[in-house]
C-alpha cells in the first residue's frame, strides 16, 4: 500500500522539525500538509515559516523529484529533492525561493508532493514509485508569539 506520512518531531517557540516518510508512494499519491502553520506552538496571526535545513534519502524507480511547497492559489515551490541522498542548509539555502505571503491564497502551510507535475506545482516529472525519508527544519520567522 502506498503511503506518504508526516510527523512533527519538534515544535518550539522558534522552530518546527518534521519527518516525512514515503513507502511505495507515486504519481497517484495525494500531497499532504507537513506544517499547518496555524496549529503550531505560539501561532498568532499570518504565520510564516522558512526552511532552514533539509536532509533526504530518496529511492525512486524513475527520475523526478519530491517537492516541498507553500500553499497558495498558485503554490510556491520551496525545494525539489531528486532521488539519492542530499542536504540543503546554511548558505545553500540562499538559492531557494523565499515565500511570498502577499500572494493570493497564501496561508503559510507547507505541503509535500511526490509528483511535482500533478498540477500542484505545474513543473517537474512524476515519480512512479518512491521510498525514503526527509527531515526538514523550519524557522518561525513571523506570526508567532515569543
How does this structure look, described?
By secondary structure, this protein is mainly β. The protein has a single domain (3-144), classed as Jelly Rolls (Sandwich). Helix content is 0%, strand content 53%. The chain is built from no helices and nine strands. It has strands at residues 3-11, 15-25, 32-35, 43-60, 66-70, 76-81, 84-89, 110-113, 130-144. It is globular and about 45 Å long. The model is unreliable at 118-123 (pLDDT under 50).
Give keywords.
146 residues, mainly beta, 5-stranded antiparallel sheet, 4-stranded antiparallel sheet, 9 strands
Low-pLDDT ranges = 118-123
- The total strand number stands at 9
Q: Determine the CATH topology.
A: Jelly Rolls
Radius of gyration: 14 Å
Average pLDDT level: 83
Amount of beta strand:
over 45%
Layout: helices, strands, pairs:
Layout: E1 3-11, E2 15-25, E3 32-35, E4 43-60, E5 66-70, E6 76-81, E7 84-89, E8 110-113, E9 130-144
Antiparallel strand pairs: 1-2, 2-9, 3-8, 4-7, 4-9, 5-6, 5-8
